[in-house]
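Lecture 7 notes: from sequence to structure.

We start with a single chain of 265 residues. Read the sequence below before looking at the structure.
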Amino acid sequence: MAKFRKALLVHREVPDIATRSALKEIERMLRAKKISCKKKPASILLKEDLPAGALIIIVGTDGTFLRTCRFVSNQPVVCIGLESHPGACALSSFGILELAKLESIIEGNYSEGVRERLLVSINGFPLEEPVLNEVFFGSEKAYKLAEYEINFGDKTESQKSSGVLIATGTGSTSWFASAKGKPFDCELNEARFLVREAHKGSGGQMPAILFGRILSSPETKFNLTAKKEEMILVLDSANPRYLTKGDKVTISFSKAPLHILRPKA
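Now the structure, written as tokens:
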């Protein structure tokens, strides 16, 4: 197991009393293990703040984790949730009242889970941030139909709908599940997509491509091309990208999956 020499402690912008106490305890624990540590709120975090080879310790809600993980490349990550926000900590490995588990991880008693992330490209240019949860492609205005061409494997089809949602296993239990997608294992080497509220064609028939699995090996081709103005691409429920007619979005797999550390049972 790796021996950690440095760590970055990332937290919510305004931590409550319990979180502040937990942050102090984590800093004390790291000092006792002779691990150098820097601390920073997720809201002002930059990619250059994450040292290569450092242990990234995130204390907060799912939003804190997602904001931080978009800057993580190959660093190991520990996600610690807040008991005060139980419904918003689905990505955490344990809570702030269980810091003995963090000490166990620091001492090398951990297992590592690898979670696939998505790489999104627009017109052949990859976006820098990998996607941990989901990608939404649709109309900028929710009350208007999205118009696009979908290319899945060897099939291509023009569609109108409320948009297309592409999720990893990690994201399949949130927005994807709310849109009636079936959750799947977060460590599977695949993503899945679904078309939301598909519009029938001129002949009254539903589109043929409504859902499917995007495999990482062999990699499944998946493209979406905007056929109207005012289209939008949203990564992990944030970071919107505005699209124009003719823009082509390609979904593939990031070369840097997320490495999450958990205490051994």
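The first strand starts at residue 6 and ends at 11. Keep this in mind for problem set 3.
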